[in-house]
Automatic annotation (TrEMBL):
It is found in: Cytoplasm. Transmembrane segments: none annotated. It holds the Pfam family BPS. It comes from the Eukaryota. Its main location: cytoplasm. The keyword Phosphoprotein does not apply. GO terms for cellular component: cytoplasm; plasma membrane. Residues 17-101 form the Ras-associating domain. Keywords: Cytoplasm. Residues 143-251 form the PH domain. GO terms for biological process: insulin receptor signaling pathway; negative regulation of insulin receptor signaling pathway. This is Growth factor receptor bound protein 14.
Amino acid sequence: GRGGERNRERDSILLLQVIKVYNEDNTSRAVEVPSDITARDICQLFILKNHCIDDHSWTLFEHLSHLGIERIIEDHESVMEVLSGWAMDTDSRLYFRKNFAKYEFFRKPLDFFPDHMVSISSETNGIVDHSQLIETFLNSSTCPEIHGHLHAKEQSRKSWKKFYFVLRRSGLYFSNKGTSKEPRHLQFIADFSDSDIYTDLSAKKLHGAPTDYGFCVKSTKGSSARDLKLLCADDEQARTCWITAMRLLKYGMQLYQNFIQPHQKQKPSLMRSISENALVAMDFSGQKTRVIENPSEVLSVAVEEGLSWRVSQESKTVFSSESKFQLRFSEIKTKKSLNQRSLNDILFCTSDITVTSTTGNIQSNPKTFVLSLCHMQKIKHFQILPVDDEGELVYSLDDDHTRFTDLIQLVEFYQLNRGVLPCKLKHHCARITL
């Protein structure tokens, strides 16, 4: 039922974990984040904390020092899934830094895919339509073929050997007969369904590569050097071409959606910050309340201002609807709770209430709540009304002018905005058990 769904949503909010993120100067900061946080969310959090300008180039990197490799963690990826693949006894880190080329291939594909390394399927007679190059990567029925010579480290040996490689949608292959692309001569190396592509930062030093332009394919389940398929290009442009093509083949349209997301306006109901129950930021300067539609702005406010309140163990019981009681009785208990602290503080708590009908009978309504706060040595109560929004239940404190999908959104919003209240909410009081 709806109550069970809300309980599950509430529980998911409270699954917080501490992670450490490094800056480019190797200083680090530990932050507590929800278990469903993405790489984009982390970047937005650190843009806010470090007072950076958000030019959409900030990137989260997975850095595996013991292997001398690192990769971009794509904006949509779950950070906790990345961390779960780390071995306990290895020096693995998250880095927050700029990468101006992260999505540059969408703007200037010809800089990333030189003519001599790219061809289209035989249906177009091998002619590359430059204006459609990226589209063919994103289209599941077509794919540019990337080809060229690479050095490869042979398994269980220290030696490197040069082969002709071919990258197709089905995976990466090398030819065991010169530059032949005949199926009988192509030997499968890797696909990307359960592998990631890394830049090799110590190709010569750690892996004995013939050039500095190393990269590798690593299984998501592997954590040792034996799990790496080490490759090496002759120049930076060739390495960039291979890595970019592999990213596009692995993630496809998702990469393009990551690229355009910061520039898109989204419906407020679809906006998401660090969890499904995100803070809604609004502007009260006009005649009507306005939802701030910049996802980066909303996310930054949500993460910075909302996490400290969510982590409170008190919030586990704040919105429980198991006990219903009359508002008069609630006021007595609320006064007792609020008076335990200085009445000069801005205190608040939320309680379930029942509604008295015109016949005088008490009618239980588990979806009706009251917000009680103490301000200027006076205790005040504000009824939170449930509103039906096309079959979805939302909550409002101001006669349906401002809507929230749940009470956590509502409370976090009024911690940042005064709205119809006499003041912003400040200190949360645990609810009294009756």
